[in-house]
TrEMBL record:
<keyword id="KW-0132">Cell division</keyword>
<protein>
    <recommendedName>
        <fullName>Septation ring formation regulator EzrA</fullName>
    </recommendedName>
</protein>
<feature type="transmembrane region" description="Helical">
    <location>
        <begin position="6"/>
        <end position="26"/>
    </location>
</feature>
<dbReference type="Pfam" id="PF06160">
    <property type="entry name" value="EzrA"/>
</dbReference>
<comment type="similarity">
    <text>Belongs to the EzrA family.</text>
</comment>
<feature type="topological domain" description="Cytoplasmic">
    <location>
        <begin position="27"/>
        <end position="572"/>
    </location>
</feature>
<keyword id="KW-1003">Cell membrane</keyword>
<dbReference type="GO" id="GO:0005886">
    <property type="term" value="C:plasma membrane"/>
</dbReference>
<dbReference type="GO" id="GO:0000921">
    <property type="term" value="P:septin ring assembly"/>
</dbReference>
<keyword id="KW-0131">Cell cycle</keyword>
<keyword id="KW-0812">Transmembrane</keyword>
<dbReference type="GO" id="GO:0000917">
    <property type="term" value="P:division septum assembly"/>
</dbReference>
<keyword id="KW-0472">Membrane</keyword>
<keyword id="KW-0175">Coiled coil</keyword>
<keyword id="KW-0717">Septation</keyword>
<dbReference type="GO" id="GO:0005940">
    <property type="term" value="C:septin ring"/>
</dbReference>
<feature type="topological domain" description="Extracellular">
    <location>
        <begin position="1"/>
        <end position="7"/>
    </location>
</feature>
Amino acid sequence: MNTQLIVVIVILLVIVIAFYVVSTIMRKKNQERLEELEDRREALLDLPVEDEIDEVKKMHLVGQSQNTFREWNQKWTDISKSSIGDLETQIYEIENENDLFRFMKAKHSLDTAEAQMGYMEGEVDSIREGLRSLRESEERNSLAVQEALDVYEDLKTRLNEEKASYGAAAPEMEKHLVNIEIEFTQFVTLNTTGDPVEARKVLNQAEEDTFELKNKMDRIPPLVLELTDTFPSQVEELEKGHQQLLEQKYIFAEKDIEARLFHIKGQIEDSKKSLEQTDLDMVEEVNRNIDEEVNFIYDIFEREIDSHKYVKANTAQVMNYIEHAKKNNRQLLIELDHTSQSYTLNHNELGRARGYQTEIDTLERNYKLMLPKLEEKQMVYSQAREFYEDSYKVLDDIESEQLQILSDVKELRKGEKEAQKKVDDFEFKLRNIKRYVEKQRLPGLPADYLEFFFVASDRVEELAGELNKIRINMDEIEKLSKFSSDDIEILQEKTDELIDSAALAEQMMQYANRYRHNNPMIAQAIDHSLQLFTKEYRYKDALDEIGSSLNKVEPGAFERIEKFYFSHRELA
């Protein structure tokens, strides 16, 4: 019994101790969560939300911005006045439950309180973000309004201080400024009386009108300057310049200069009327046209003044160039006449030279017709300049072609000398070939070889005959010279082939004699080769006949003898 009692007591003690330990741990854990929850509540209350609300409130928001602000403000009021108070009550109740060892209920209440705390923190973050967005948006709007007001004030000051710069458009600009001022005043009134929607519409219109007016006022002064100063000054200068040039006996191809100047004056007046109505697109278009017309007339005057200087400086030069070309052409014709007695002129040189003379005579005639008009100042200087420039070009081309013809004529004499040297060279080569063939003491020569030799010789004789004519044709001589050169080159190749074939055939037959008595095929080949060699003069065929037969008896003999021959050929 004592033992059982002790066991029961020990078990009870363990249970009590375990309960105490668990209770202590749970109570401590709940207490830590309570303290953390309290810290979060205090941190939420410490946020400067009230200050941020007051800051936005001072901006005097209107319209949708004001409605949005009221929503955020109401949410903060609900949280700060109601939700946080409810949370504080919950925290107090949880502390009591924890102290009374009602740990599970305290834990459940803590879960609920923490969830509520998280929700409030999220809401406060949204409120602060919304307030920040409102503040930044309103600041941007305020800057835009202030910018428009600054622009308006600047435009007003500019118009007052620089009224002359706006010319006939100034009254219309003043009307626009008055209208914009009325719009800004109306905006302030509507905003103050609580009609934010209409106030925003009026403000938007005021801003749009302000920047539109700025655009116009930026564009107007340069246009006014053109219409009141630049163009009138230019027209006056052009009128005076035109009169002075006429007094100096200038003549213009354009007969409507006065009419153009009168038209420009009318355009200036039309542009001023458009400016008065602030139709700036029309003013800019007309001013561009005026500027183009003015520059066109300036270009005419500048062209004629420059042309006058050019004509004055080049009148004598053109005549000198014409005389120079005439002299050169006379010399060219004399040279061609002299040359044509000795050479055939194949490229119409005389006809071309006579054509140059016709061109030169035409230029001289036109020059002499024009000169009195220039002296009496009855001609447009730019037209005279054009004639001079064209004359220079024609004379330059003529001189270039004259020089080319002279160069070609000199080449005829040079070509004749070269052709004569070639004839001597061809004849020398033919004699050498003939002596070389005779030296070989061949039984005879093939008919085709002799025929080609005589063709080459006849061609050289024909070339020599052409060169000995009283009037030679260098085109024909060059052609014959080319043919002769080709013929002799081919003849030399044929001669070498003929002599080599004959010499090799003899050597092959001599070498083959060692097989003659004991090889009927070789004996027959030697006899046939001798027939081809001594009777028919077909040395190449004789070589092929004996060479192929010898190779059958002694393979490689043909190539060995041929190689030995060509390596010692110069000694032969």
